[in-house]
Structures are given as structure tokens and as C-alpha cells.
Specification:
alpha/beta, Rossmann fold, three-stranded antiparallel beta sheet, 42% helix, 12% strand
Length: 580
């Protein structure tokens, strides 16, 4: 039996290549394409710096890159003068084409500004009118976190209002969340008409008890948004389990499926939006059969009358400078279980996915711009109340027989770093030492020294001039505070994926500071306008400004755990808008 994703891939392949090609012909064509690409790259690498600079100045570089893209089967339109850092290239894989002729970029990467840009520059008048005909739209949520689906709805409402469409309205019908701190947050930031339940499974009964201990009739909604708990799925987990089995991930999914299954066909949401980490779409050893977790979920929802499809959403494609890939599924309810109804829903999904592609910008807002705009919310280590983890000096660690001094020495020898290159400059120590441990600081410097040495040695092989790594005090660099020679990356173009308990140090042209809670939110699209819309109180803002990590801060009741709580509001917005 062919899976939904296989059918979609086959359809795309059919449209992009001749249907009469045999598998052998396709393999020959691919081998020839790769050979041509290798020859093209080799010809470029053999040029001297002077030749490449002359090519750049004459404008021929853009033509050569276009030729390279033609060979590789891409359609990027390179712009002369735009430089792409090596970090951006390595973190994003291959370049994403600009699918829309963007004459104007969003004012910022914030959710409200981005949505206003999308409504004004991507949607047609007919599509805007179609959205308004669906109003009012009731929204339900499971594994709600901070309830950021409300923020997505406000962004769409605001953008439609400014575009002259005043009839589009949404309503938050219910939320389900098991974490006590997040429940307290939802109570403070939702309207009185929104019912809040303590688990997904509570909605499996026709009458359910809410968090106020009241027995109410189970609310319904046209749209359901839900996060699949990733604690058993993430690559960082120490307790991997199948999403179809026991565990926190499986229990939350089972509660969602049981709730939908207990509803009549007329009560079920027309659209179910799901979110999780990309690993859900990979086959893992703990999966009981050949199916991935993502395919298992589609199969279970199919039994309930839904037709769905998963897609990976990369924030970098949608103007956010963060490496936080997530997978989203849109599941549309069929009118009946006939093949004709299934076919119509698949056509609707294809239109929605096409709209998501049209909303891509293909590049993020410059990270330096985002940090600069939210700089007033970034506190230094001392101001943030950050207490550096206690650690031994290098001499003390060597004397006590610790392993890390030997690891650092081995790393330096393996990377052929000179003795002078391994010596930490006094200005670097003065900036970084108040924020991170001596061990992490020394490891960070060794990585920086290697990056600079590697850049200088390979400068002749650079595709574009002026891309080389410069001094640490002349660049924007981001690294985790728990840095080690065997773990951690130093990024320049995008912020790392924010995870619970992680802290990040920002080196901005020689000045070091910690990324606080408000900075984390800004990097995920929740900036000035969005914070105001969320109606965060003074104590919550103050706590966020002091936080050096993204976590649940019980003292100030700030629920900022990872997952859909913050980072994926934009993906929800894409799916909401596309499926309308």
C-alpha cells in the first residue's frame, strides 16, 4: 500500500520529469548532472584570488552562479553584492529559491509584520475574500503551552483588518495543557469564554471537567492545533519511545486521538494542525514497524476521516534567523469516506502547500538586525543576575587529573594550531570569563582559532571573495555557554535552535553578553508588537529580561518552555492561513 507522502512525492516527480523515463534513464541523467557540477566547481576553484576578484568586479560572478544553479537544477536568482556566510550555507544545506518576486521585505521578522507583508504582497484579493467567508473561526488547542495559536490568529486578524477586510474574526474555544505553570499562564492570558482542561484525554467525554473543577459540555471548534510532545522523540532524549506506545509522547497523542474518536463526524474539527520535531518523520529503532511516527499519525487520523500531509518548516525560509526546523501536518476532514471526497481533500492540501511555498522569502532577516532591535532587552551577565558556574583553572584541573585539559591539547594538535594561536587574548578573557566557565571559554577560543586558521588556508577555494573568518572582535558570533571541543557550534548567520536549559553567549564585535528570555522570543518572531499583544505583565517582562535561559521560571510565573510554546507560532500561522 502506498503511503500519502509517497503518493505526493510521486506526483511531484511526475510533474518535474517526463513520465516515460525509465529508472535507468533517470540514473544516467542524474550522474551526468553531478559530473557537470563537479567539473564546474573544479574550474572555479582553479582560479586565483586576482582572477576571482576581477570576475566579481565585472559582474560575471552572478552569471557563473546562475550557470551553477542551472546545472544543479535550481532556480535561484543571485544578487550581486549579497554575501552568504559559510555558517549560513552549512546550517541550511542547499540554498532555497526565492519563489516570489519580493519587491518589499517585511518591516521585521516579527509575526505581525510578517503576516501584514504576506497579506499585502502574497495573497490575491480572491484569497482574502475566501478567508473572510470562513469567519468567525473557532480554534481549539491541545498541548497548548503559552497558547501562541491565539497570537497567530491575532496576527492574521490585524493583517486582514489593515487590508480592509474587517469581517475576519477568530475565537479561542478551548485549550488543554497538563503543566501547572502553563495552566496558570493561560488563565491570566485568555478570555473568560475559553475553557481550559488539564489534559488532552479530558476532552474524550461529552461532559468534561475544566481546570476550575467545573463540569461543562465538551466545546467544539472548526480548527484544532496540537503539539506532539517531543520528549520521547527528540534526538536529545535519553528515553526514546515510539509515538504509538507508552511514554509522554504516546500518551499525549493517544489523548488527542481518543478525543477526536469520541466525537461524531459533525463535531470533529474540519482542520487539525499538528507540530513536532523533525525526527518524528524519520524511522527510528523504537518504531514497531516500517512506518515512521509521522506516518503512523496520518494512518490513525485517516481512520477518523482525515486526509493529511506533513511538511518541514524552516524558520530561515520565512525571515527568521534561527535554526529551528519543525514538521507540521495539515489534516482536512472529509465529507464522507468515498474516493471522490478523498481526492478533493488532497487537492485542497496541494493548494495549501503551494500557498506556503509562496510565502517563503528564502532568506532570514539579518541576525545582527534582530539583536540590535531587541538590544534594550538584552542584559549583561552581571545585570541579568547570571552566576557563572564554578570551575577550576587550567593548572588546577591538570593537577587534579581532570580530562578536559588533555582533550584541549589533543584538539589543538589534531587541528595543527600553533602555540601562539592557543593563547587566550586578555581582552577575550575579560569579556567572556564573567559569563562562562574557564573550560568552556578555552574550548571556545580553540574553536575560534581553528575557524580563523581554516579560513585563511582555504581562502583560495572560496566561491565568493570577502567571506573569510576575521577576528573574533570584528564579527557577530553565538555559542552555547556549555561549550566543549567535542560539542557545540559557533554560529554567525543564524541563532541555534533554542532548547530547554540551554544558555547562549553573544559576541558582538568584541562585546559579550547573554541572550535573555526576551531575546529568545524575538528570535522566534515574538517581538515588540507581539509582546504587547500577549499582554505580558511588568513582572513577567522583568523576569524575561533577567533570564539567561529559556525555561519555566516559577518565581515569576513565566512559562517559556520550548516546542510550540514559542518557537512555532509562525508555523501555526502558515497552516491556519493556508488551510482556510
Amino acid at each position: 500500500m502506498t503511503s500519502d507522502s509517497e503518493e505526493s512525492s510521486a506526483s511531484e516527480a511526475h510533474e518535474s520529469s517526463a513520465s516515460e523515463d525509465s529508472p535507468e534513464t533517470a540514473r544516467i541523467r542524474e550522474a551526468a548532472r553531478r559530473d557537470a557540477a563537479r567539473k564546474f566547481r573544479l574550474a572555479r576553484f582553479m582560479k586565483t584570488d586576482a582572477e576571482k576578484q576581477a570576475t566579481w568586479d565585472s559582474g560575471e560572478t552572478a552569471k557563473e552562479l546562475a550557470e551553477m544553479d542551472r546545472i544543479m537544477g535550481k532556480h535561484r536568482q543571485p544578487t550581486k553584492g549579497r554575501e552568504t556566510s559559510s555558517e549560513e550555507e552549512s546550517s541550511s544545506g542547499e540554498s532555497t529559491p526565492n519563489l516570489v518576486d519580493h519587491k518589499q521585505l517585511p518591516v521585521s521578522s516579527g509575526v505581525f509584520d510578517y503576516m501584514e507583508w504576506a497579506v499585502n504582497h502574497v495573497l490575491t484579493d480572491a484569497e482574502k475574500d475566501s478567508v473572510c467567508r470562513k469567519a468567525p473561526l473557532s480554534i481549539g488547542s491541545m498541548c497548548s503551552g503559552m497558547g501562541t495559536e491565539d497570537l497567530a490568529c491575532r496576527a492574521i486578524e490585524n493583517a486582514m483588518l489593515r487590508a480592509g477586510r474587517v469581517s475576519f474574526k477568530t475565537h479561542s474555544a478551548y485549550k488543554a495543557e497538563s503543566n501547572d505553570d502553563k495552566i496558570d499562564f493561560l488563565k491570566r492570558h485568555t478570555t473568560g469564554s475559553t475553557q481550559i482542561f488539564a489534559s488532552n484525554a479530558d476532552l474524550a467525554q461529552a461532559e468534561a471537567q475544566n481546570v476550575n473543577k467545573e463540569i461543562v459540555a465538551r466545546p467544539t471548534s472548526k480548527v484544532l492545533t496540537a503539539g506532539i510532545v517531543c520528549i520521547d522523540i527528540s534526538s536529545m532524549t535519553t528515553t526514546p519511545r515510539a509515538v504509538s506506545g507508552a511514554g509522554k509522547s504516546g500518551d499525549s497523542l493517544r489523548g488527542l486521538l481518543d478525543s477526536l474518536g469520541s466525537m461524531s463526524l459533525g463535531e470533529r474539527p474540519i482542520l487539525v494542525i499538528l507540530e513536532c520535531v523533525p525526527r518524528l518523520a524519520h524511522h527510528r529503532k523504537v518504531d514497531p514497524d516500517h512506518r515512521t511516527g509521522a506516518q503512523y499519525i496520518l494512518d490513525e487520523l485517516s481512520k477518523l476521516g482525515y486526509v493529511g500531509e506533513w511538511q518541514t518548516v524552516r524558520p530561515r525560509d520565512f525571515y527568521l534567523p534561527q535554526s529551528r526546523d519543525r514538521v507540521y501536518a495539515m489534516n482536512l476532514l472529509r465529507n464522507d469516506f468515498t474516493e471522490a471526497s478523498t481526492r478533493l481533500r488532497r487537492e485542497d492540501l496541494a493548494k495549501a502547500m503551494d500557498l506556503i511555498s509562496r510565502m517563503k522569502l528564502g532568506k532570514p532577516e539579518p541576525l545582527a538586525t534582530v539583536l540590535q532591535n531587541c538590544s534594550k532587552y538584552i542584559a549583561s551577565g552581571k545585570q541579568a543576575g547570571h552566576r557563572k558556574r564554578q570551575s577550576e583553572t587550567l593548572e588546577a584541573a591538570e593537577k587534579s587529573g581532570k580530562k578536559w585539559p588533555k582533550d584541549h591539547k589533543t584538539y589543538a594538535e589534531h587541528k595543527y594550531l600553533s602555540e601562539d594561536g592557543c593563547i587566550l587574548p586578555s581582552d577575550f578573557v575579560a569579556e567572556v570569563s564573567p559569563l562562562i566557565s574557564i573550560r568552556a571559554m578555552r574550548a571556545m577560543w580553540l574553536k575560534l582559532a581553528f575557524m580563523k586558521q581554516n579560513s585563511e588556508e582555504n581562502k583560495v577555494h572560496s566561491l565568493m571573495p570577502q567571506k573569510a573568518f576575521t577576528d573574533w572582535n570584528k564579527m557577530l558570533l553565538i555559542a552555547p555557554t556549555g561549550f566543549g571541543v567535542g560539542w557545540g557550534l559557533i554560529r554567525t548567520a543564524t541563532f541555534p535552535c533554542v532548547t530547554p536549559g540551554m544558555e547562549y553567549v553573544i559576541l558582538d564585535n568584541g562585546k559579550a553578553r547573554l541572550a535573555c528570555g526576551l531575546t529568545m522570543m524575538a528570535l522566534q518572531g515574538i517581538q515588540g508588537k507581539e509582546v504587547k499583544s500577549f499582554r505580558l505583565g511588568p513582572r513577567e517582562r522583568q523576569a524575561l529580561a533577567r533570564l539567561g535561559r529559556q525555561c519555566v521560571h516559577r518565581q515569576h510565573h513565566c512559562c517559556l518552555s520550548s516546542g510550540r510554546s514559542i518557537g512555532d507560532v509562525r508555523g501555526l500561522m502558515f497552516c491556519l492561513r493556508s488551510a482556510l
